[in-house]
Amino acid sequence: LLPPNPAKCLLMEEDELQEKEFFSWEGFSAFFDAWCERRKVLFFVKNSVPLSKCKWATAPPQPDVVEALKYSSVRLVCKDFRGSGKLDQGEQQKGCSANIVLKMSPKKDRLIVTECQLAHNHALCPIEFAYYFKKGYLMANSCLPVRTTNKISKQFVGGPDVRRLLSYCKSRDHGVLDVLTVLDGLFASDPGAKVKLVFMEDKVIVQTIFFLSSRMMALSRRFPLMLFFDRMVGLNEEFDLYSVLCVDGAWHGRAVAYCLTQQDTPDLLRFMLASLVQSVPEVKLQVRCVTLGMEIAHLEAVKELLPNARVQICRSQVLEMLFSKAQELGAAEDERIWPLLCRLAAAKSPAAYQQAVQEMKVILPQPFVRYFQRHWQPRSEMWVQFWAFETARDVNACELLKQHQRRLLAALSPSPTVAQCMLDLLAMEQWESGWGQAGCDGI
Ligand SMILES: [Zn+2]
C-alpha cells in the first residue's frame, strides 16, 4: 500500500466541493456541518450578502426562494485566516488562506460553490476542532450574529437595543424578527417596560422572554404582600407560559410579570423572581408569601430572593394529589378518606393536624402513610391551613389561579406563536387595567 498523497487528497476534496449545488441554505448548512466534522476544519462566515437586502435590475427571485437560499453570496474563511498568533521561529504565523465562496446561480434558484481553496498553512487539530466546532452554526447565524445574541442574552434590553437588533436581523428565522417587532411596539408605547431576552447559547433562537409593563410594575408596588406563581403548560408545541400574580383590591389575581419559555427550561421560578426583584427592587422585602402549584421545583429560590416570604403550595392541589396517591398505594374504597384528608389540610391548630395524622394511620395503608411522612409531613407548614400566611388564609389560591387560567385561555389565540402570545397578553393586561382600577379604588 502506498502512503496517501496529501496533494492528491486535497485536489479530490476541492473537486468534491467545486460547483456543488444546494437548493437551500439549510441544505448547505447540514452538508457543511458533516463535511467539517469529517475533515476537522473550522470555517466561519467572513462576509455575506443577504438576498432580502439585494436590489434587482431584472426579475427578483421568488419570496420562497429568498426564504430558502437566504444569501446571494457567502464567503467562508478558515478560523485561522488572521494567523494563529503563535510565534514560529521568531516569526508570526501568517494567516491561512483556505476559503470557500458560495453564490446564487444565474437562474436564481440555487446556491453554487464557485470558489474553493482548501490548502491550510497549519496543521489541523482534532482537539481544537472538538473545542470550537458548533453544529448548526451556519443555520443559526443566518438571522442575527451569534456574538450579538450571546452578548445580550439574560440581560434587560431597552428600546434602543431592540431597534439595533432589528437593524441586524436579516431574515424571519425562528420568529426572532416577529418577537423583536412586538418588543419594539411595546417600548414605543411604554418606554419603561422591562424585558429580558434569553437566547439559546450560540444560536439565534429565543429560549425565554421575561416582560412586564409599567402598569404591571405599579401593581406589584401596590399589592406586594402575596404573590402567586403559575405555569400554563403547552401554550403551543414549544413554549410554556409562566405568570406571577398579585391580588388586587377586588381580590382578583392580576399578572405582575410574564415569562414565555421553551418547554423544560429548568429553574424558571428563580429566574422569574430574580428578574422581578431586579425590575421592582422595593418588593424584595415586602413580599410575605408566595403560593405555587405543586409541580414547581426549587422552592428554596423563594427564600433566597424574597427573604421575608414564606412558601405555600396550592392546598387543594395537594389534597387532590394525596387522594389519588392513596388509591394508587392500595387504599380501599372508604368514604372516610376524602373528609379525613380535607380535615388534615384545613386543620386550624397543630393538635387538630396531629389528630388527623393519627386517624390516617388507622384508615390508610402503610405504604401511603410512609409516603406522606416522607414527602408531605416535613412540608406541612407549606400547605396546612393553620400555618398559612394570615392574609392568605382567606384566599382560595387554587380558584384564583384557575380564574387567571380561564382569562388567559379566553385572551390567547389558539396555539399562538411567541410574538402573537405577547401581543395577546399585552392586550389582556391593558383591558384588565380598566376593571382593575375600579378594584383598586374599592380598598
Ligand atoms: Zn486554515
From TrEMBL:
Domain of life of the source: Eukaryota
Protein name as annotated: Zinc finger SWIM-type containing 9
Signal sequence bounds: none
Chain segments annotated as coiled-coil in the UniProt record: none
Any Pfam family matching the protein: DUF5575
Start and end residues of each ZSWIM9 central RNaseH-like domain: 146-314
Gene: ZSWIM9
InterPro entries linked to this entry: DUF5575_C, DUF5575_N, ZSWIM9, ZSWIM9_RNaseH-like
Native organism taxonomy: Eukaryota, Metazoa, Chordata, Craniata, Vertebrata
Residues covered by the DUF5575 domain: 12-133, 316-430
